[in-house]
Here is the input.
Amino acid sequence: MATVIRLKRGGRKGAPYYRMVVVDSRNRTRGREVDLIGYYHPCGRPEPTAEVNREKAVEWLSRGARPSNTVRDVLSRKGIIVEASAGKAKGASVAAGTEPGIAASESAATE
Here is the structure.
């Protein structure tokens, strides 16, 4: 399933808030959501606030969910994009048989 992390608007006129949701990219914007991963309040006082469940966000990003531009900005400010990309890099190196920071000769010697 092709999934996207996008914002779903709520609130009243002039006072929006958004839910960060994971949806099937083939569905319409206001369609059924697969998972709720956080909230974004751009009109929060004294500054905009974002509440994100880190574990869910990293899990969906590692599964291949594509964030929208605004969600990508919010997640990068929280440091989640870097965490998810580091997890992908670590997973790739484990699949290749080498751990970061271990020389090939050391890993061959232990086998």
